[in-house]
Write a structure and sequence with these properties.
There is one protein chain. The chain is mainly α and 226 residues long. The protein is 61% helix and 0% strand. Helix 2 runs antiparallel to helix 3, helix 3 (60-74) crosses helix 4 and helix 4 (77-104) crosses helix 8. The chain starts with 11 loop residues before the first helix and ends in an 8-residue tail after the last helix.
């Protein structure tokens, strides 16, 4: 670990240490974690591509997985914070849904019901277990580096780009990222474009902003470089 100049908005722990005249270090992600995560994605990518096709990677959870690989290699607090503020809630819900599926054999939300689908290979379902360690990794990185408040704007822009791409380029039958309906059946009480607009505006307000306020409170790292 090398001693770094502390940028504006660095984690509170760094500022306290600087005020005390103590050395400040930025803790890089261990190489073993970087290599393991990268190796996993190298295995997952061709398997998913063959089974689902390239547009499947527009799922926000898949985008978050790939972005996390970049984040750990670049030691990027901003990218980590963007994934946490935007995708952490969905990953936690997936885990609760999967836990219910294991305990009672029923997926109350439907996010994880495919995990017991016998038509999907064990390899596909096993690779999908990345939903379990991914939020743990984000929390660990937030504790290590702090939350970057620029993530709200960055993730909002990324969210809009992914949702629009999902709407424009994917099959409504796949309903990737729920851009055509919040349920399996098409919406009958609301025009598709109205739902899309509500989704684009509501996502940042209902999910991103509350998460931003929570993370700013519990893991504040300011808005500095990184």
């Amino acid at each position: 670990m090398s001693i770094l100049e502390v940028p504006y908005g660095a984690p509170r722990e760094w500022r306290v240490r600087m005020a005390r005249g103590q050395p400040v270090t930025r803790r890089s992600v261990p190489v073993g974690v970087k290599v393991a995560l990268t190796a996993f994605v190298v295995v997952l990518f061709p398997v998913y591509l063959d089974a689902y096709g390239p547009l499947h990677f527009l799922w926000l959870s898949d985008v978050a997985l790939f972005m996390t690989v970049v984040a750990v290699w670049r030691d990027s607090r901003l990218l980590t914070s963007m994934m946490a503020v935007g995708v952490l809630p969905m990953e936690l819900i997936w885990n609760l849904d999967f836990l219910a599926l294991l305990l009672v054999g029923w997926s109350p939300i439907g996010l994880a019901d495919y995990m017991l689908d016998p038509e999907l290979s064990l390899l596909l379902r096993g690779l999908s277990l990345f939903h379990i360690p991914l939020p743990i990794l984000w929390v660990w990185l937030l504790r290590r580096w702090g939350y970057d408040r620029r993530a709200l704007v960055g993730q909002t822009l990324l969210f809009w780009a992914v949702i629009l791409a999902s709407y424009l380029f994917t099959d409504p039958a796949d309903n990737i990222n729920w851009v055509f309906s919040y349920a399996l059946e098409p919406l009958r009480w609301m025009p598709p474009r109205a739902w899309l607009l509500a989704y684009l505006l509501g996502g940042p307000v209902v999910v991103l902003l509350p998460m931003h306020l929570i993370l700013s409170r519990v893991a504040d790292g300011g808005a500095g470089a990184g």
